[in-house]
């Protein structure tokens, strides 16, 4: 049994202070600890605080506050500082973090701590909630923002902390990549560990891990929804999971990574099948498909926008040989879109078989394009190439002296032959028939069918805010761009913008339904919505998912249905409303904006009606 001292303070001095104190008392009792919890008024002076004897007797101290606090009266005691909302929602996390600190430390000059914002993502039991900070009296530890340079890892002597390195990556390389990185940084700091995180986003790798950082690391975390090259981590204890787990269960991920044993020196991790311990991680065909989509996206974006630019000079100006519109169309439609399916297939195969699968995948994808099998044929080609290359690598054994020929000669030759022959004689014709039928159906849809398809895609986009269902709808519509089907892409992106925009709007309509941190974050959430980053809605969804998710799905379905009904089209698969800056990128702009606005208002009004008041949500958490 440990002794816990909990001090709580909120601006009103009543409700949240008392609720946080009670939550900490109940959780401490469940954990078998002895606790003294006090709701305090810091403005009352030194008398408001616990005496020195109580401080010294405590094995851990929790300070849950939403107001500026002068920590001078607390002396040199180490403590876990968080918000009252975080303490109410996850008291176990606060208690574990306080006990992990324990002891005393030298205090710098007294300083005031600004209010700690409430967490934006719910953390699991046993982990400090997002927004919490672990500090010594008078000192606040800052966490680097995503994209900030990562300093070399240094662990203070005798601190007991570990050194970790991590890589985060998601298919689009935008929201989940950086949110997972920030969650790992924050949690590692709270647990007393040092961590350096490399983000493999849409603009390339940032904060690239140095050889020195990797060599010093006690464990490696790979939080990725796509294939990551693991060759740099030979001989290191390596733990793999997905970005969602790193985002929501950072403490468990870090603990699992530190519990992972390093492989034998002879083992060489590979992107396809690393010699590593794994947690919840997207695997199998779904992960391989997302890897292909993530590499295909930049090609599609560049090609679609260049095609749109060619329309600036007239809708048929590209037909004049030698003109700038003709050149833009040749680059976008003739080159970029020609590469779309080969890149998709190539990197599906790369995800399955690592580099030996790339060549047969690219060639199989090009054959799919030439045979008219479209993106569906490209997907099939990628899987054939990847699994045939992997089978050859695993089963075919050459004499040691010529083993080096396997990745550069034997595997590409045999896998390409297998893939090519199957595409030409077996797969190509059926896939072409399916694609022709799908294209004809999309082109000749009645208004009723178009509305139903748009509603389905819109609801899927708003179901899990960047999760598997969202990505399945997105990947489907991106693939249709190669077949000149631009309507579903418009419905998908329009609906994907609704959740963040609707929740930001709802904070104006019904502010009492949201906590202070959600209201403060509404401007950033709105901007994320405009950028087509659905993940901006996750913090709001985490607090009340059973009410928020259905209302967002209704709003998304309305937007998707209206977009298809109005005949809106979109040639670029990302960028949100900012693609409107490119003339011709969006067809029927006025109705496209109207569809987004109507769906946003519908979702905002619904969530404002059905969502419980913030105080009830916090109390029930």
* Structural class label: alpha/beta
**Approximate strand percentage:** 5-15%
Oligomeric assembly: single chain
Average predicted confidence as pLDDT: 79
Q: How would you describe this structure to a colleague?
A:
The protein is an alpha/beta fold and 621 residues long. It contains 22 helices and 15 strands. The strands form four sheets. Strands 10-9-8-11-12-13 form a six-stranded mixed beta sheet. The chain has a five-stranded mixed beta sheet with strand order 2-1-3-5-7. α14 packs across α16 (487-509). The radius of gyration is 27 Å and the shape is flat. The chain starts with a strand and ends with a helix. The model is unreliable at 104-159 and 266-275 (pLDDT under 50). It is an enzyme of class 2 (transferase).
Briefly summarize what is shown.
By secondary structure, this protein is an alpha/beta fold. It has helices at residues 15-31, 52-57, 84-89, 91-101, 175-190, 211-216, 243-248, 250-259, 284-310, 324-353, 358-370, 374-395, 405-443, 447-461, 468-480, 487-509, 516-520, 522-530, 538-543, 545-565, 589-610, 614-620; strands at residues 3-9, 34-39, 60-65, 69-70, 78-82, 112-113, 133-136, 163-169, 194-201, 204-206, 219-224, 238-241, 277-278, 569-570, 586-587.
Which features characterize this protein?
single chain; 621 residues; alpha/beta; 22 helices; 15 strands; 11% strand; flat
Topology:
Blueprint: E1 3-9, H1 15-31, E2 34-39, H2 52-57, E3 60-65, E4 69-70, E5 78-82, H3 84-89, H4 91-101, E6 112-113, E7 133-136, E8 163-169, H5 175-190, E9 194-201, E10 204-206, H6 211-216, E11 219-224, E12 238-241, H7 243-248, H8 250-259, E13 277-278, H9 284-310, H10 324-353, H11 358-370, H12 374-395, H13 405-443, H14 447-461, H15 468-480, H16 487-509, H17 516-520, H18 522-530, H19 538-543, H20 545-565, E14 569-570, E15 586-587, H21 589-610, H22 614-620
Parallel strand pairs: 1-2, 1-3, 3-5, 8-9, 8-11, 11-12, 12-13
Antiparallel strand pairs: 4-6, 5-7, 9-10, 14-15
Helix pairs in contact: 1-4, 9-10, 9-15, 10-11, 10-12, 11-12, 11-13, 12-13, 14-16, 14-20, 15-16, 16-18, 16-20, 16-21, 20-21
Keywords: Cell membrane, Kinase, Membrane, Phosphoprotein, Phosphotransferase system, Sugar transport, Transferase, Transmembrane, Transmembrane helix, Transport
Domain PTS EIIB type-2: 164-259
EC number: 2.7.1.202
């Amino acid at each position: 049994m440990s002794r816990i001292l909990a001090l709580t303070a909120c601006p009103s001095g009543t409700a949240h202070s008392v609720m946080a104190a009670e939550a900490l008392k109940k959780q401490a009792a469940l954990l078998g600890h002895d606790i003294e919890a006090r709701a305090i008024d810091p403005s009352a002076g030194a008398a408001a605080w616990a005496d020195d004897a109580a401080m010294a007797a405590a094995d851990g101290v929790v300070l849950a506050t939403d107001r500026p606090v002068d920590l001078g009266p607390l002396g040199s005691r180490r403590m876990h500082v968080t918000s009252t909302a975080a303490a109410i929602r996850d008291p176990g996390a606060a208690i574990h973090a306080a006990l992990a600190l324990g002891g005393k430390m030298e205090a710098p000059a007294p300083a005031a701590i600004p209010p700690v914002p409430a967490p934006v993502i719910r953390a699991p039991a046993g982990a400090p909630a997002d927004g919490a900070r672990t500090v010594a009296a008078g000192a606040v530890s800052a966490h680097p923002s995503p994209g900030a340079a990562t300093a070399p890892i240094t662990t203070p002597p005798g601190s007991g902390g570990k050194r970790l390195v991590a890589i985060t990556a998601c298919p689009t390389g935008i929201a989940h990549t950086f949110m997972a990185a920030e969650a790992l940084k924050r949690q590692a700091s709270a647990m007393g560990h040092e961590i350096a995180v490399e983000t493999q986003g849409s603009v390339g790798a940032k904060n690239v891990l140095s050889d020195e950082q990797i060599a010093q690391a006690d464990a490696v975390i790979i939080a990725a929804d796509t294939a990551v090259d693991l060759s740099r981590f030979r001989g290191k204890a390596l733990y793999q999971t997905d970005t969602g787990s790193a985002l929501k269960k950072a403490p468990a991920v870090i603990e699992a990574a530190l519990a992972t044993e390093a492989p034998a020196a002879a083992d060489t991790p590979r992107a396809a099948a690393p010699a590593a311990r794994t947690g919840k991680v997207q695997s199998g065909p779904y992960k391989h498909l997302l890897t292909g989509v993530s590499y295909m996206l930049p090609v599609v974006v560049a090609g679609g926008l260049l095609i749109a630019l060619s329309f600036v000079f007239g809708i048929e100006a590209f037909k004049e040989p030698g003109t700038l519109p003709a050149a833009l169309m040749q680059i976008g439609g003739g080159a970029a879109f020609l590469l779309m399916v080969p890149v998709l297939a190539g990197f599906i195969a790369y995800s399955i078989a690592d580099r030996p699968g790339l060549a047969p995948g690219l060639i199989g994808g090009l054959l799919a394009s030439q045979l008219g099998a479209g993106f569906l044929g490209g997907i099939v080609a990628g899987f054939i190439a990847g699994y045939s290359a992997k089978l050859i690598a695993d089963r075919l054994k050459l004499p040691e002296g010529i083993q080096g020929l396997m990745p550069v000669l034997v595997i590409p030759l045999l896998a390409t032959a297998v893939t090519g022959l199957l595409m030409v004689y077996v797969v190509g014709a059926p896939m072409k028939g399916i694609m022709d039928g799908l294209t004809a159906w999309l082109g000749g849809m009645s208004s009723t069918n178009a509305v139903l398809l748009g509603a389905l895609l819109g609801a899927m986009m708003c179901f899990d805010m960047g999760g598997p269902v969202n990505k399945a709808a997105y990947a489907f519509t991106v693939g249709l761009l190669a077949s000149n089907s631009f309507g579903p892409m418009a419905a998908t992106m329009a609906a994907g913008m609704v959740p963040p925009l609707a929740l930001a709007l709802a904070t104006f309509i019904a502010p009492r339904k949201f906590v202070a941190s959600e209201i403060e974050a509404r401007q950033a959430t709105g901007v994320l919505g405009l950028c087509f980053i659905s993940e901006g809605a996750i913090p709001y969804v985490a607090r009340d998912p059973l009410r928020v998710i259905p209302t967002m799905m209704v709003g998304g379905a309305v937007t998707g249905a209206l977009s298809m009904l109005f005949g809106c089209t979109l040639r670029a698969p990302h960028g949100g409303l900012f693609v409107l800056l490119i003339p011709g990128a969006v067809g029927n702009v006025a109705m496209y904006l109207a569809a987004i606005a109507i769906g946003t208002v519908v979702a905002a009004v619904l969530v404002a009606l059905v969502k419980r008041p913030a105080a009830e949500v916090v109390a029930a958490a």
